Amino acid sequence: MLCRSDFCILYVDDDENDIRLVEFASEPAGVRDGIRTVRSGPQAIDYFQGHGPFVDRGKFPLPQVVLLDLRMPRMNGLEVLEWLRAQPELRGIVVIVFSSSVHPDDVVRASNLGANAFVQKPSTHIDLIRLLELIKGFWGGFHQFLPVQRNSVLGELANPNLKP
Questions:
Q1: Within a 10 A sphere around the Cβ of 162, how many other Cβ atoms?
Q2: Which residue blocks in the chain are alpha helix, DSSP H?
Q3: CA nearest neighbour of 50 among 85, 89, 81, 19
Q4: C-alpha to C-alpha distance for 104 and 57, rounded to whole angstroms
Q5: Domain tally, the chain
Q6: What confidence category does residue 147 fall into, taking pLDDT thresholds of 50, 70 and 90?
Q7: Would 159 be classed as within a structural domain?
Q8: What residue numbers bound the domain in which 78 lies?
């Protein structure tokens, strides 16, 4: 499914139930065509780098917003956040840590690593729809994103007019 707008959200979570809940809420929230999902930290990095199944930037555009779960095996959300913030060409991507629990140490660490927000996963379907609507409304409607750096490798991968 292609993004129909320039606003895309990457949802990073290993919990299949949470993924289904977000996918189910994405349609009434008006973000269904703009949401992409990966199920692990390494898969998120492959997505950002355009590796493997994510090489087609038409299908897998660089997101403007990342909803990032913290508790994942192999590479947790904080490690993904740390990697992401170490990539100069990706620093403009908004990262919303999206966690089931709000432990103060996690909030502090995520903030120190450069998270833009820390949100506890909503407990109801209505609240999840509302959250997705707010993300789309604010980040997709009002926030001014940094331009993609075309001189970087990742910026070049995002440019569909490249010639071999």
A1: 9
A2: 16-29, 41-49, 77-85, 104-113, 125-139, 153-157
A3: 89
A4: 37
A5: 1
A6: low
A7: no
A8: 9-142
